[in-house]
Amino acid sequence: QKEVEQDPGPLSVPEGAIVSLNCTYSNSAFQYFMWYRQYSRKGPELLMYTYSSGNKEDGRFTAQVDKSSKYISLFIRDSQPSDSATYLCAMSPYLGNQFYFGTGTSLTVIP
Amino acid sequence: DTEVTQTPKHLVMGMTNKKSLKCEQHMGHRAMYWYKQKAKKPPELMFVYSYEKLSINESVPSRFSPECPNSSLLNLHLHALQPEDSALYLCASSQENSGFGYTFGSGTRLTVV
């Protein structure tokens, strides 16, 4: 079983839709959770990070962590064509230098 | 300066060539990383440098040789690569023991012919 599972998609939505991206994980020790956005042929860009459980909001983006279910989500409100990218979740059990990445979900927002 | 700069952006090399990838950051980050990413796959960790010392080597073949000349620079020396080594090579940096993610460069797209 992989440490982090993420549906690769592809996911296609109309402009303005609410997008839900999800990852599940098996290691209950994970405490630090991140979402990255990666445009084609570019490096990943850190979007949001959270520690332990709860929600965090930044503009149109909301990250949720449910440690009891070992499930994290990223919601994108009022999705825009510029949100079209691959979204990677990543997580770590401790303040350290190694993170575990999901496989990424490819999102296309259609104008 | 909040960027990680990688050069070159694209590289085509033969299997007998020797080349180097370069990475630079001026954010004062003390941890630097090399990742390899194949198409439609997540990044795979290759090497971690912490305070200019190699702290993690994820069983990478010896044809990849990392070097950290100082706290701002990271190199990856390539020799006798195979076509299956073609990938996007990403450099990243972070605060030491940061649980809050990396700053990635845009990568070097390597093609081995």
Helix/strand structural class of chain A = mainly beta
Q: Whole-number radius of gyration of chain B?
A: 13 Å
Based on CA inertia axes, which overall geometry of chain A fits?
globular
Number of helices of chain A: 0
The termini of chain B sit apart by: 36 Å
How many angstroms does the end-to-end distance of chain A come to? 38 Å
Ranges of chain B where pLDDT stays below 50 over 5 or more residues in a row are none
Helix content estimate of chain A = under 10%
Largest sheet of chain A: 6 strands, mixed
> What's the total number of strands of chain A?
11
Basic shape of chain B: globular
Characterize the main sheet of chain B. Answer: 7 strands, mixed
Give me the count of strands of chain B. 11
The overall average pLDDT of chain A, rounded, is 92
Succession of helices and strands of chain A: EEEEEEEEEEE
Q: How would you portray this structure in words?
A:
The complex is a heterodimer of chains A (about 110) and B (about 110). Chain A is mostly beta strands. Chain A has strands spanning about 5, 10-15, 20-25, 30-40, 45-50, 55-60, 60-65, 70-75, 85-90, 100, 105-110. Chain A contains no helices and 11 strands. In chain A, strands 2, 4, 5, 9, 10 and 11 form a 6-stranded mixed beta sheet that branches. In chain A, a hairpin with a 6-residue loop joins strand 4 and strand 5. The N and C termini of chain A lie far apart (about 40 Å). Chain B has about 110 residues and is an all-beta fold. In chain B, about 0% of the residues lie in helices and about 55% in strands. Chain B contains no helices and 11 strands. Chain B has strands spanning about 5, 10-15, 20-25, 30-35, 45-50, 55, 65-70, 75-80, 85-95, 105, 110. In chain B, strands 2, 4, 5, 6, 9, 10 and 11 form a 7-stranded mixed beta sheet that branches. Chain B has a 4-stranded antiparallel beta sheet with strand order 1-3-8-7, with no helix packed on it. In chain B, strand 9 and strand 10 (about 105) form a beta hairpin. The mean pLDDT of chain B is about 90. At the A-B interface, strand 4, strand 5 and strand 9 of A face strand 5, strand 9 and strand 10 of B.
